[in-house]
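Obj: model holo form, ligand = manganese (II) ion.
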Amino acid sequence: MLDGSTNVVICTHVNPDGDAIGSSLALKHYLERKGKQATVVVPNVFPDFLTWLPGADTILIYTKHLEQIRAAFDAADLVIVCDLNQPNRLGGMEEVVMQNSAPRILIDHHLDPNTEFCETIISEPAMCAAGEVICHILSQNGEIDNISENEAICLYCAMMCDTGAFSFNSNRPVIYEHISHLLARGIDKDQIYRNVFWTASEGRLRLQGYLLYVNMKVLHEYHTTIITLTNEERHRFKVKNGDTEGIVNIPLQMLGTKLSIFINEDTEHPGIMKLSLRSVGDFPCDQMASRHFGGGGHKNASGGKLQCSMEEALERVKAVIDAYADMLKE
Ligand code: 5GP
Ligand code: MN
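Output (holo structure tokens):
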């Protein structure tokens, strides 16, 4: 399908993360090297710590570049959907993708992919990132040693971001075989790490201190923490887009923590509380998110939302945690 295409649109999920942006850009560089036109389109803005990625300046954002995105889809003879398993994860872009008549390929690693919305599905939930799925395809096709440094940078960034710099979901030896091939393309993985993880503003560090010192609730019996952030606090601390990224992971550093929940009031839709869930070990965040918070995700990282005040969200979250007491206590 790639060989037969000339004009490819690559799209990914709402609130795109390092895997979404990294794997989409890797595909773009790969296709361009093969002489094709390739455009990456995303539903909304991506965090500043990803803007250094090669090609990031060419990404079209649905909330800003609507007409250019419509034109790109009109011209497309192939659409690649990357790092998502349900069409609604395309956010506001869902309609323009679903109404497009070009064939679609899904490249993903989430559980239970919807098998209806793409003709061709390449999905492997055992893999750590959509970027790993792409490495696997390139290896199978004998292409992994032909890729450019830019392709390698984007693929490394994708896998690094979805594994917390290879600190979770990253025990399969083949991941490091892929990384070995990427390093051979001349990438500086230490620089990639610093570009993503050591870019905090003063505001971000102070917010982190405030959220941990003042707002974090520790439910000791349940080995669970809850951190809240309202829009009022967001204004008070001049919180910028991306400043809250990764906050939910910090409480997992506390010995014995099994579950960390971050309740974050939606900036664009006040009154909607976005939830991020992270766990250590076997606790099923995805099940908690899908059963109680209208969301989903992975076993150790999931998300969802509640439409209510922060006080009510806190009470509802505590009640849900209590329903999992068997798993969380002990
Ligand atoms: P985050 O906490 O970083 O926003 O999301 C963590 C993971 O949870 C994402 O990679 C995604 O797989 C999943 N996720 C987050 N929000 C939602 C949601 O509203 N619905 C579903 N199905 N999955 C979500
Ligand atoms: Mn991913």
